[in-house]
Amino acid sequence: MRALLDTSAFLWFIGGSDKLSVHAQNVIMDLDNRIVLIMVSLWEIAIKVSLGKLALVKPYEQIIPQQIEENDIELLPIAHNHLTKIIDLPFHHRDPFDTVNHRPGNDGRDTDNIS
Fold first, then answer.
1. Share of the chain above pLDDT 90, in %
2. How far is CA 40 from the centre of its chain?
3. What is the pLDDT of residues 48-100, one digit of tens each?
4. Are 81 and 87 within 8 A, CB to CB?
């Protein structure tokens, strides 16, 4: 399975939060699954840290690359065609990062969103 983590799921996972469902934890930890995190999530985390809205246990530049490597998370870039397709999507989220974050799961590839 290929699973796309949203920003909250990634942060809950690396922080060991009980907000992440047992099912989601199992999907992420299953070595047979490909876990994907879109680059916009890293951008969102960096912005929240810089604004003081998010505190991490280690500096961003240490913990994020460490967790991506340790958990074998694939980083998905944001392509121009992803952004142009957002124009036609309904605006269900107050947070624009959520709209971008869920876009790659709708491009015809076998990806489940984990949030």
1. 66
2. 8
3. 999 999 999 999 999 999 999 999 999 998 877 767 776 776 766 566 565 55
4. no
Q: What is the pTM assigned to this prediction?
A: 0.77
**Number of domains observed in the structure of the chain:** 1
The CA angle 100-106-110, to the nearest 5 degrees, is 125
User: Long-range contact list for 15-18, CB < 8 A, 24+ apart?
Assistant: 15/57
CATH classification at residue 95:
3.40.50.1010
Residue with tokens 């942060």: 11
- The rounded Cα 89 to chain-centroid distance in angstroms is 19
Within 8 A by CB and 6+ apart from 22, the residues are: none
Place of tokens 């980083």: 75
Say if residues 9 and 114 touch (Cβ distance below 8 Å).
Answer: yes
- Which residue segment(s) compose the domain that 94 sits in? 2-114
